[in-house]
Amino acid sequence: MKETISIGSRIEMFTDDRLIADMRGLRLQLNRPERKEVVLTFPESWEGPQCTYFTVLQDSDSGKVRMYYRGNCSTDDSEEQVTCYAESADGIHFVKPELGLFEFNGTKRNNIVLKGVLAHNFAPFYDRSPGAESTGRYKGVAGIGNSVQTLNNQSPLYALRSEDGIRWSMLREEPVLTDGAFDSQNIAFWDVNIGKYRCYNRYFTHDRIRGIQSTVSDDFIHWGLQQRNAYAHDVPLEQFYTNATIVCPQAEHLYLSFPMRFVQERKKVEAHRHVGVNDAVLMTSRDGTTWDRTFMEGWIRPGLDERNWTDRNIMTAYGCVESDTEFSFYITEHYRFETVRLRRVAVRKHGFASVHADYAGGEFATEPVRFAGERLMLNYSTSAAGFLQVEVADESGVALDGLSFDDMLPLYGDSLQEEVRWKSGTGLRGLEDRPVRLRFRMKDADLYAFQVK
Asked: Tell me, what DSSP letter sits at residue 150?
């Protein structure tokens, strides 16, 4: 007998096959985001063509969306490197406030929040830990560029703190980590699943392949041993330049990572000085260290724009902005050009992937699951001719009375959360904590996620 999976009242997406027992005539499908508007350009003297390593924080207290990014970076050992700040009420229309904190080219009329070598890749986060108030509700990590590492013969990562997300100071003068390659974007956050801080960062293999590793901490100062991301044995090794790892909003038991995949040996634009082309991929995890790569294909391709076929483009910013119907992410375009810009891309809420049915249709069944709730809610979409039906069965696959396909009218339409109704009107009442299988019948439809409430 299969082990019963406890799903409680969580939103369960189909970014992996963890819940799927069998499937006929259907397939798991990666859903690429929709390219939206350019939200930021960088014409100021303290910004420039190497603006990158973006972080976006949705501040529930103030209602602001806060954006941080590297500005000027003439060389990676320059003390004139800066971290800049912009803010928005909706994640679309951003302003760059004059903060008056740091001088650049003789003026403090700028949006700089950090200056010096630590601005090379500074990445902040909003600390959700219970004790955050005592050390600063905003924290961040900062590595230094490769030239500084070579001079100092070490690769340090430093911890910073702030009360307001604008004025930053060192949490301590010494580095908190030294066992990684910290010269790209390093991601840290409070992991609600384990009640510890987690930091994702980069390492190099012996043959200089870039990979992702992580470590955890109770206090943001003392960190454990690094654990390299683990993948299935048949997953080919690819170069990941950054990771942009988050826990999924409203489904925090799932980790999402959006690495910038670096194909170093390719060069599409011959006139461009640097080698390498990039795209963004999506991978998921249920424990933060073992990663599923059901979808090996690109999540975001460079597209028709030639300037996105040069090195270090299509880098996904760290962070996600949530609205009523979609998640917003942000990608770097035109890196190293004077037209460098940040573009928003949008994903249906919890619609990163789906069980997809073409016109011929098909069925799939879950593993035995145990839930907490009485109402089965679906995030789904059909064509005008498509439909979706659900049957509830016992562990052996026998439909329960009143909850079979025949007891349910076909569901059609498009909804982020629509309740499944059987003719009996009882819903899932009385089935809490009882192992059952859910069987879905679909035609010309996508099922993105489900939840029992």
From this structure: H
pTM, entire model? 0.96
Q: Is the dihedral of CA 91, 93, 99, 101 positive or negative?
A: positive
Q: Which of 364, 284, 281 is nearest to 27 (CA)?
A: 364
Question: Which two tokens mark 236?
Answer: 């080919």
Q: Which domain holds residue 244?
A: 34-348
- What is the C-alpha to C-alpha distance for residues 48 and 54, in angstroms, rounded to an integer? 14
Helix (H) / strand (E) element for 36: namely strand 34-41
SS (H, E, C) 10-51: CCEECCCCCCEEEEECEEEEECCCEEEEEEEECCCCCCCCCC
Q: How far is CA 81 from the centre of its chain?
A: 26
The pLDDT, as a whole number, for residue 167 is: 98
Q: What residues have CB less than 8 Å from 65, skipping those under 6 apart?
A: 56, 57, 58, 59, 87, 88, 89, 90, 91, 94, 321
**At which of 300, 318, 348 does a domain end?**
348
pLDDT of residue 200: 99
Nearest to 303 by CA among 278, 324, 320: 278
Tokens, residue 450: 């489900």
What pLDDT does 62 receive?
85
Note the Cα 205 to chain centre separation in Å.
24
Segment-wise mean pLDDT, segments of 10 residues, the chain, 453 residues: 89 98 99 99 98 96 94 91 98 99 98 98 97 92 81 81 97 95 97 98 94 98 98 97 98 99 97 97 99 99 98 98 98 98 99 99 98 97 99 96 96 98 90 95 99 98
Tokens of 52: 């990158």
Name the nearest CA neighbour of 139 among 153, 127, 129.
Answer: 127
CA atoms lying within 13 Å on the CB side of residue 344: 21
Residue 150 φ/ψ, nearest 5 degrees: -65, -40
DSSP code for 154: -
127 phi and psi angles, rounded to 5 deg = -80, 115
Whether residues 187 and 330 fall in one domain = yes
pLDDT value for 60: 82
Structural domain total, the chain: 2
The residue with tokens 């229309």 is: 93
Q: Are residues 312 and 377 in the same domain?
A: no
